[in-house]
Structure formats: C-alpha cells, structure tokens
Amino acid sequence: MFTLALHATCSATFVNRNKIKSTMLITHKILFPCAALVALFFTACDAGVSSTEFTLPDEPSAAMQTIADEVIAGNCSILWHAMPTSYQTDINAIAQLAGSKVDPEIYDKSFGLVGRFAEVADKQKLFILNTKLGGELTTEQIAEIEAAWPSIIGFIQTIVTSSISSSAGLRAFDGQGFSEQTLPALYKYSNDLAALSNEENPFDGLEFDSLKTVESTDTTAILEITFANGDVEAEDFTKVENRWVPADMATNWSTEMGDAKKQLEAISFEEMAKNKPQIMGMITMVDGILTQLKTAETQEQFDQALQGALMPIGLLMMQSMGEGIGAPEIPVAP
Predict the structure, then answer these.
(1) Measured between alpha carbons, how far is 251 from 234 in angstroms, rounded to an integer?
(2) SS (H, E, C) the chain
(3) What is the phi-psi region of residue 242: left when phi exceeds 0, alpha when psi lies from -120 to 50, beta otherwise?
(4) C-alpha span between 226 and 79 (Å, rounded)
(5) Could you say which of 43, 173, 229, 279 has the lowest number of CB atoms within 10 Å?
(6) In this predicted model, what pLDDT tens digit does every residue of 185-235 receive, in sequence order?
C-alpha cells in the first residue's frame, strides 16, 4: 500500500498534463456488484444497516434494473445492499486482515503524503499549469485541465479523508458506511472527469434500452441486455442468499477469497521491518520535495524546485518498483 501511495504522489508531480482521463473499472458486462467489490476493498467506515434490511425485487432483470437506476441517481449504497451477506462478511474480513498486516506508521504517513500532494497541487495550480517543464500547454489545454481540476483534487481528497487513510480505519473495515458516505463522492468525481474528457464515458454502459429475463429457475437466470448503442448481450446470473450475482462471480468467489487470504497471511513482518528504515527515508525525501514546491512564491522558484526533484523522484520510483518494498497490497476482488 505504501508503494501505491508513493507512486501516486511521485507520478503526479510530472504527470502528462495534456490529457485528462477517467479510468473507472465499471463495465456493462461486470455490472454493479463487481464494481462494488473492487471499490470496497479499499475503504473502511462506520458500520451501517445490514443488507437483509434492504429489499430488492426478486425478479432478476428487475433487480439489476433497480441497481442500475439507483447508481445512476447517485445512491451508491445500493452496491452494498446488492451483495449477499456472506460476500459482505468476506470483504470485511479480508480488508481487516490487510489492516492487521500493514506497518501502521508507514501506512499512515504514506496516505498523509498523498494528502499533502493534493494540498500542494491545489495551492500551486497556476504554477503547475504554467510550467514549461514537460512542454508548454495551449490555452485550450489549460482550460480543459482547469475545468477538471476540482474533480481531480476532490477525488484524491475523498480517498485520503476516508477511513482507508489510517491503519486503524482499515483494521475496522466495514463496507456499508463506505457505500453511503464515500462511494457517492468517488462516483460523482469520476463521472465528472469522464464527461469532461474526450474518452467514452464508462457510465454510459449503465443505461439500458431494455433489460429482460429470457430464462430463469429458482436459482439461475439469463438476462438479455440491450444497450443504448443497440448492442445486445446475454449474461448468466446465479441467486446467492436472495441476491442475484454474475454466475462467474458465484462460481469463483470462495476460491478467490481463499487465495486473497493466503496472500495476506503469507506477508512477512520481518521483511517489512527490514525495509522500514529505507521506506521512511523515502517518505521524508518526498515530504521535503513537497515542502519546496509548496513554499515557492514565483514560477521560477517552482520550476527550480520541480526540476531539482525530478532525478531523485525518478530514482526513488525505479528503486521502489524494482525491489517491491512497502506495505502489503490488498488483493483485488474476483
């Protein structure tokens, strides 16, 4: 997790500013339960209402249509409610296990570093947009980035102020609070960025011309999905604990959860302790670079600080990627 935070901070320092993209993982083939599982692995909040207290239609196409409509309307808590209770329990357990495997100091300081980057970037926005390092931007390009800026900063700040930003929060992981408090903001910022970019908006795939059940039993269903562009696809679903989920997910869930648990349990505290002095040194160095960038009062001072930082940042990134140091990564959901 340190490596993720460090790369996010360093890469953003000299990111290609010529193109703003949204890299959301939600697709029409995976649908909403899968999207929720990916997101929920990375956040923790206060406990909330059990999914058993939320009613979804029993008919499979109606259930999926309800999920789609609620997400588009901004009610992202539907993602948590749409999952079987046992899946919720598994997700919470895996995240809490990950929280027990991180070094608290490294983890907390890493996310603090990402938060500092957002703070510095927001304060020095004009210097970032007007620097000639990496190539001068056109007026149109600057206007595009300025339009996207609030969503970029907002997305980062949402992550670093959520419970995932502390090791204690990760150890107390509960997905329900995230789906109600944090996921809506992430969805909004991502949707805004997609709308401002020239890329295809991934959320367009959440709007169906029609969604119907073509075959079903008490525990299985085949849905025919017709999208706005005219594409038609058939998807298999399985009923698990009164919740319809993609059939592939239902088949692979136990294996994937078992593999994730084994990966986390195999993490060596001794190896982490051995690498800790080097990691903390990296954090201190990047923090110093951010301080120089934050205190720059002119474009010349900012450019000098940025240029002086490029070489150590590049070496730092190559070293961290090559050695794979840092706190454990949380396994991705199936």
Answers:
(1) 18
(2) CHHHHHHHHHHHHCCCCCCCCCCCCCCCCCHHHHHHHHHHCCCCCCCCCCHHHCCCCCCHHHHHHHHHHHHHCCCCCHHHHCCCHHHHHHHHHHHHHHHHHCCHHHHHHHHHHHHHHHHHHHHCHHHHHHCCCCCCCCHHHHHHHHHHHHHHHHHHHHHHCCHHHCHHHHHCCCHHHHHHHCHHHHHHHHHHHHHHCCCCCHHHHHCEEEEEEEEECCCEEEEEEEECCCCEEEEEEEEECCEEEEHHHHHHHHHHHHHHHHHHHCCCHHHHHHHHHHHHHHHHHHHHHHHHHHHCCCHHHHHHHHHHHHHHHHHHHHHHHHHCCCCCCCCCCC
(3) left
(4) 22
(5) 229
(6) 888 888 888 877 766 666 666 677 888 999 999 999 999 999 877 889 999
How far is CA 308 from each of CA 44, 278, 290, rounded to the nearest angstrom?
A: 37, 21, 12
Is the entire prediction scored with pTM above 0.85?
Answer: no
Output the CA angle 35-37-6, nearest 5 degrees.
Answer: 90
Measured over the CA atoms of residue 62, residue 68, residue 73 and residue 79, the dihedral's sign is positive
Closest to 178 in 3D by CA, of 162, 167, 190: 162
Q: What is the pLDDT of residues 126-166, one digit of tens each?
A: 999 999 887 888 888 899 899 999 999 999 999 999 988 89
